Amino acid sequence: MAPDTYAVRRLQLQLSAIYVFGCAFRSAVPVFDVPRICMFNSWLSSVIVGRSVATCAELCFVAQWAVMLRVTSRSTGSAVGRFASLAVLPLIAVAEICSWYSVLSTSNLGHVAEESIWGLSAALLVVSMAVIWPRCSASLRPVLLAWCVAGAAYVAFMFLVDVPTYWSRWIASGASGGHYLSMAQGARDVALRRVVSYRWEDWRSEMVWMSLYFSVAVWLSIALIHAPLSAARAGRGLRNTSVN
After folding, report:
1. 38 domain residue, yes or no
2. Structural domain total, the chain
3. 89, 93, 140, 177 from 58: Cα distances, Å
4. Is 244 contained in some domain?
5. What pLDDT, in 10s, does the model give residues 61-79?
6. CA torsion sign, 38 to 116 to 66 to 125?
């Protein structure tokens, strides 16, 4: 294995380890952030702990995508891929800020912005992979196509299900005269307030995304560890095409 490929593989492994640990932790002590609902009356179940772990994990997951796109775009000469590799991490950093705004203030409007940014970032990734697809070797194209299909399904879920859900919650809260917290009030609230609940009615709205997040997304993160080798094969395919 070439030294540069080994270095990227190692980086992907480290980033994936952080993401997988974050998902394992959050699945063991699940928290419904805005209403402060949890299953265990422990400081580990406080929203501030869960949201902090989620922020680190999600940034690492997106960093994996950025690394994969950077290596693949260099191998295939894709300007779109290079742009996406530089854009996705800052975009998700903004999404995390929006998430913290919603968690602290209890206003779901921040979640509307957060999930919209996630959807747009995923759409950018899909477009980048679609552009790279013709430049890859024939043996690699089915794998890239699978990533594109998975990404497109994610984008559809975000804009058809997730974003409308948070928008509806924000509208409903406004209609009922909901009171939002200041950032200082919210910081104290997420650190101290916990509402322990085992009722299906309290968790039902979160079950779909949590189930997918803590299972499918974890396997995708692990799969990205193999991206450097795929990128190298893509580059060889491009060079062979150029020679022929």
Report:
1. yes
2. 1
3. 10, 9, 27, 33
4. no
5. 999 999 988 888 887 888 9
6. positive
